[in-house]
Amino acid sequence: MRNLIMAALLLYLGSACGTPKEGSSEAAAANIVALVDSQTYQFTATQMNPQGGRSRILNTLYFVRVDKDKLSVDLPYVGRAYNASIGTSDSPLRFETNTFEQSVKEAKNGGREITIKPSGQNTDVRELFLTIFSNGAGTLNVTSNNRQSISFSGNVSSLPQKK
Length: 163
Known about the structure:
Layout: H1 2-16, H2 22-37, E1 40-50, E2 56-67, E3 70-74, E4 94-97, E5 100-106, E6 112-118, E7 125-132, E8 137-144, E9 150-157
Antiparallel strand pairs: 1-2, 1-9, 2-3, 3-4, 5-6, 6-7, 7-8, 8-9
């Protein structure tokens, strides 16, 4: 009797923990591809991984927003600065620009690899390299001219609705 109850319990738990439906993951992947192709998406950072330190979970909204002809970046920075500006307390990864180059190529796993090169006087960032996986997760590597590079983990989604 005990074995019968254990078998029934295992069967129930096994069915409750089943794999997600294949169609839902394909729809999510298609949604991510559509967002990237339309050049209107947002990367929301959930974890920061500096080169010379320990990783940190981010509780505040930090993001990279691409809206066709506008790039908005608001990310924290922890690391070594080789040449820092004096008298500023802003993050070097907080800027907006309308002049940037973006190239997109397909990754092996069905995701996308995006290289963004901002230009202009208000940024020290040389390159943002965003790898997006088919499930919407992504990693962002930021390379600066005067600072150590830093990476972020997070999720890609559509832009927030304007009020």
